[in-house]
């Protein structure tokens, strides 16, 4: 089936950027006559007719913000990012803005497709983009976009040396502090279980684990470190492997979905928490308060991070010259009975 002509295909045929095509269509910036002619010829050959709605909006605020989040169907991170999205929308709605949401499914290729959509088909419809990036997203994204609207990163920091607008939480310090509570209870064989350690949030949690052990002069045991798929089943299976092969007195799980599987296995084996071992989890979901014992966990301010991302976006829209800003919204330790 032949592709319907769009701004991206015109740009490819004319060997220019999508922003240049947009500038030619809307006469919004100076374009060399030779380049302008190439774009118009490409539009004619492809029989591309730009949307009259988009053209009428050009030069005005559309009051639409894009949001890309990484939700996976097996992972309860969906609840975190839905809460974050609600935070974004609550602030934008008060200012008369609407939100368009795309899902990268925690997949880099899918994320790049979403970004491509916002910089091509939607380039004339959105005023800005908020994104919780997957792994390996970095300077190549912003450098290759060549678009006019602001971008705000949220929850995860991009892999870039450039200063960029970012809303994040104190993953390193709050994880360090929580594990230190275990160590002060004389736990010294603490396992660390995580999903893929490939975004800033999980990387910082792992660094905290290593550093706090070092402070207490406890050798790092690679056999107690597990990086697994973010699923209930993987949590259950890794708990079985861990308890069958190692003597431990503490478990730190920095992924809520995995944590459920681990906790189920511990209960099935009649392991007494915290008498036999301490248990620390991430994200304060309702089920953690209903277990026996109730689980000590790290609560992330997902809604508040969404609000902050939206406020920062609005600031950037009001002042495009504003220097990039990094804002930390602090997470907190919810002390219960599992340590």
Q: What can you see in these coordinates?
A:
By secondary structure, this protein is of the alpha/beta class. It is built from 13 helices and 12 strands. It has 3 domains: 7-57, lambda repressor-like DNA-binding domains (434 Repressor (Amino-terminal Domain), Orthogonal Bundle); 64-168 and 302-330, Response regulator (Rossmann fold); 171-299, Rossmann fold. The strands form 2 sheets. Strands 2-1-3-4-5-11 form a 6-stranded parallel β-sheet, with helices on both faces. A 6-stranded mixed β-sheet has the order 7-6-8-9-10-12, with helices on both faces. Helix 5 packs parallel to helix 13 (302-318). The model has no long low-confidence stretch (mean pLDDT 86).
Q: What's the number of structural domains?
A: 3
CATH architecture of the largest domain: 3-Layer(aba) Sandwich
Sheet with most strands: strand arrangement: 2-1-3-4-5-11
Apparent shape: elongated
**Full CATH superfamily name of the largest domain:** Response regulator
Q: What is the count of helical runs?
A: 13
Low-confidence stretches: none
Distance between the termini: 60 Å
Radius of gyration, in Å, reads: 24 Å
Classify the beta-strand content into a percent band: 5-15%
- Helical fraction: 40-55%
The ordered H/E elements are HHHHEHEHEHEEHEHEHEHEHEHEE
Main sheet overview: 6 strands, parallel
What's the β-strand tally?
Answer: 12
InterPro entries: HTH_LacI, LacI/GalR-like_sensor, Lambda_DNA-bd_dom_sf, Peripla_BP_I
Pfam families: LacI, Peripla_BP_3
GO molecular function, one term: transcription cis-regulatory region binding
Protein name: LacI family transcriptional regulator
């Amino acid at each position: 089936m032949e592709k319907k002509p769009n701004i991206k295909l015109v740009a490819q045929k004319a060997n220019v950027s999508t922003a240049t095509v947009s500038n030619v269509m809307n006469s919004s910036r100076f374009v060399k006559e030779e380049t302008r002619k190439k774009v118009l010829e490409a539009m004619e050959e492809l029989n591309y007719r730009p949307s009259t709605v988009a053209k009428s909006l050009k030069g005005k605020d559309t009051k639409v913000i894009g949001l890309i989040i990484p939700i996976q169907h097996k992972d309860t991170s969906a609840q975190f990012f839905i809460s974050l999205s609600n935070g974004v929308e609550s602030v934008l709605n008060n200012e008369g803005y609407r939100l368009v949401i795309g899902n990268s499914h925690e997949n880099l290729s899918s994320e790049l497709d979403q970004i491509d959509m916002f910089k091509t088909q939607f380039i004339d419809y959105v005023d800005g983009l908020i994104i919780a990036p997957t792994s390996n997203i970095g300077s190549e994204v912003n450098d290759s976009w060549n678009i006019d609207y602001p971008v705000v990163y949220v929850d995860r920091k991009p892999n870039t040396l450039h200063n960029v607008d970012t809303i994040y939480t104190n993953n390193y310090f709050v994880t360090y502090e929580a594990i230190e509570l275990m160590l002060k209870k004389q736990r010294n064989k603490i396992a660390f279980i995580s999903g893929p350690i490939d975004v800033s949030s999980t990387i910082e949690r792992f660094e905290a684990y290593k550093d706090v052990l070092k402070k207490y002069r406890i050798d790092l045991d690679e056999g107690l470190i597990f990086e697994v798929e973010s699923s209930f089943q993987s949590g259950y299976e890794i708990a079985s492997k861990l308890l069958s092969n190692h003597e431990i007195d503490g478990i730190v799980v920095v992924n809520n979905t995995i944590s459920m599987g681990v906790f189920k296995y511990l209960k099935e084996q009649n392991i007494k928490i915290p008498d036999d071992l301490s248990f620390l989890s991430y994200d304060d979901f309702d089920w953690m308060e209903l277990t026996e014992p109730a689980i000590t966990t790290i609560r992330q301010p997902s809604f508040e991070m969404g609000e902050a991302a939206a406020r920062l976006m609005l600031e950037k829209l009001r002042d495009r010259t504003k220097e990039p800003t990094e804002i930390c919204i602090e997470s907190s330790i919810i002390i219960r009975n599992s340590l």
